[in-house]
Design a protein that fits this description.
By secondary structure, this protein is an alpha/beta fold. The chain folds into 2 domains: about 35 residues, no CATH class; about 270 residues, Rossmann fold, CATH 3.40.50. Helix 1 packs across helix 9, helix 2 packs parallel to helix 4 and helix 9 packs antiparallel against helix 11. It is globular. The relative contact order is 0.14. The structure holds S-adenosylmethionine and zinc ion. S-adenosylmethionine binds next to helix 4.
Length: about 325
C-alpha cells in the first residue's frame, strides 16, 4: 500500500525517480495528478492553494545562516540526544517485531536543511527504513535533497538487492497542516523547533506511534537575549502539551545544555536563524557584534526534548 497520498485528491500516490503520480481513484473524474521530481531530488507536494505566501517557510538567508552555524557543531549535543532517543524507541522489541512485517517510516516535520535529518538517516536501515523529510520552505528542501543525493540516500538511489541497504530519504515540500501521507502510516514524527499540529500528527501516526519534540528551554541563549533586549521575556509555557494531551501520552522529557564560545560570524548567524533576535533593534544587534569583535562571546544553549506516544483510539 502506498505511503503517500495526493495533495489534490487524496488518492494513493506512487513515488518514482522522475514523476510521482496519483492513481486518481478518489478523484470524481478519476484524473491522475503528476508531481515532477526536481533536479536536486525533492518533490513539491504543496499545491498553490495551500500556500499562504509566495515563498512560505524559512528564507534562503536563514537557511544559509543555520547551515553554517549548525555545521560548526554548536548544537551537536542536541543532535546526539535526539538520535539516541530515536534509536532506543525504535529498537524496542515491539518495533522490531513490527519491522518483520511492516517498514519503519519516520517523518521529520519542519526539517529545515536537514542537520538533524541527516543524523537520523545515519542510524541506518536496521532502525529506520524510510525517512520523510518535510518542510514548507523550498530553499530548505533544495539544500536537504542535494546533500541526500550526494550521499546516495534518495529513495530512487536505493537498490533493494544491495546488501548495504541505507535509510531512504524522501525530501518533500509540504505543509504540516496537510500532510500527504496515508492515515496511520508513520511509526514516528520529530518536530525540532518546528510546528506542532496535534490532530494532523495523530492522523498519520500508526497506533502507539512516537512523537519527539525539541524546544528551547528556560534560559536558552540568556546572555544573548540580555544584550539584545531591555526587557527579557521567558519562552512560552508548556501550553502545547495541553493541546497534545487528547491524542498523546508524555513518556518523558530530557534536558540538554551546552556552553558555546562564538565568533562574530557565528553570533551573526545565530541572530539570523533565531527569530526573536532578528526582532531586536538593529543598534543593539550591531553593538553586540562590535563588542564580540574584541573578545569571543559566551552563551549557553538549553533545550528540552519531549517524548510522547499516540494514545490508543477508544
Ligand atoms: C526553526 S526551523 C527548524 C528547522 C530544523 N528542524 C532545525 O532545527 O534545524 C522551523 C522550520 O519549520 C518550517 N515550517 C514553518 N511552518 C511550517 C509548516 N506549516 N509546515 C511545514 N514546515 C513549516 C520552516 O520553513 C523551518 O524550516
Ligand atoms: Zn490526485
Amino acid at each position: 500500500m502506498s505511503l503517500f497520498i495526493c495533495p489534490l485528491c487524496q488518492s494513493p500516490l506512487q513515488p518514482a525517480a522522475d514523476t510521482w503520480r496519483c492513481d486518481g481513484s478518489l478523484h470524481p473524474k478519476q484524473t491522475s495528478h503528476p508531481f515532477d521530481v526536481a533536479r536536486q531530488g525533492y518533490v513539491n507536494l504543496l499545491p498553490v492553494q495551500q500556500k499562504k505566501s509566495k515563498a512560505p517557510g524559512d528564507s534562503q538567508e536563514s537557511i544559509n545562516a543555520r547551515k553554517r552555524f549548525l555545521n560548526h557543531g554548536h548544537y551537536a549535543p542536541l543532535q546526539n540526544l535526539i538520535v539516541q532517543k530515536m534509536a532506543a524507541l525504535l529498537s524496542k522489541s515491539e518495533a522490531t517485531e513490527a519491522k518483520d512485517t511492516q517498514s519503519v517510516n519516520w517523518l521529520d516535520i519542519g526539517c529545515g536543511e536537514g542537520y538533524y535529518t541527516q543524523a537520523m538517516a545515519q542510524l541506518g536501515s536496521d532502525i529506520i527504513d524510510t525517512l520523510i523529510a518535510a518542510d514548507i520552505s523550498k530553499p530548505a528542501l533544495v539544500e536537504l535533497a542535494k546533500v541526500s543525493k550526494a550521499a546516495g540516500r534518495l529513495w530512487y538511489q536505493q537498490n533493494e538487492s544491495s546488501a548495504a541497504k541505507t535509510t531512504a530519504i524522501y525530501p518533500l515540500v509540504t505543509s504540516a497542516a496537510h500532510l500527504p501521507l496515508r492515515s496511520r502510516s508513520v511509526t514516528g514524527i520529530s518536530s525540532i523547533f518546528s510546528p506542532i499540529l496535534p490532530e494532523a500528527f495523530a492522523e498519520v501516526l500508526a497506533d502507539d506511534g512516537y512523537l519527539i519534540i525539541a524546544k528551547p528551554d528556560a534560559g536558552h541563549l540568556a546572555t544573548m537575549r540580555d544584550a539584545l533586549f531591555d526587557d527579557v521575556r521567558e519562552h512560552d509555557s508548556d501550553k502545547f502539551l495541553h493541546e497534545l494531551a487528547p491524542y498523546f501520552t508524555l513518556l518523558g522529557t530530557d534536558n540538554v545544555s551546552t556552553e558555546m564560545t562564538l565568533s562574530t560570524d557565528d553570533l551573526a548567524d545565530l541572530m539570523t536563524m533565531t527569530p526573536y533576535a532578528y526582532r531586536a533593534r538593529s543598534e543593539k544587534r550591531q553593538a553586540l557584534l562590535t563588542a564580540v569583535e574584541k573578545a569571543s562571546f559566551k552563551t549557553e544553549a538549553k533545550f528540552v526534548v519531549y517524548i510522547l506516544q499516540k494514545k490508543a483510539l477508544s
